[in-house]
Amino acid sequence: MRSECVLGATSDSGQEAPRDTWFLQGWKASRRFLIKGSVAGGAVYLVYDQELLGPSDKSQAALQKAGEVVPPAMYQFSQYVCQQTGLQIPQLPAPPKIYFPIRDSWNAGI
User: Which UniProt keywords apply (predicted)?
Assistant: First the structure.
């Protein structure tokens, strides 16, 4: 005898199979795909918008700009978290200054 899967049918144990499990599983999988696709699309747009794959002088300028903008933004975010939660975040030491000229190492291995 051939067994077929029918929505709302009873299983071998006599219990009714859930009607919406296939829909919920599909929704969970598609939701993960949409979130990951959105993050990847945003990253591609940011790279294109900032011209990071263009000439090395523009890439170097974007890297310097990020180095100037990110530490103050992280400090502001930590202050916001402290105000909202009442937690005290210990002061971290200053990050080391890193100088890595992209122009000097671009295609250096060829």
Answer: Membrane, Mitochondrion, Mitochondrion inner membrane, Transmembrane, Transmembrane helix
- How many helices (H) and strands (E) would you count in the chain? 3, 0
For residue 16, report the phi and psi dihedrals to the nearest 5 degrees: -80, 135
CA distance 69 to 55: 22
Strand partners of residue 10 = 16
Within 10 A of 70 (CB to CB), how many other CB atoms are there? 11
Q: Which amino acid is at 61?
A: A
What residue spans define the domains of the chain? 21-53, 56-88
pTM beyond 0.70: no
Buried b (16+ CB within 10 A) or exposed e, 28-51: eeeeeeeeeeeeeeeeeeeeeebe
Q: What is the mean pLDDT of the chain?
A: 76
* Cβ proximity of 20 and 9 under 8 Å: no
**Contact call for residues 33 and 39 (beta carbons, < 8 A):** no
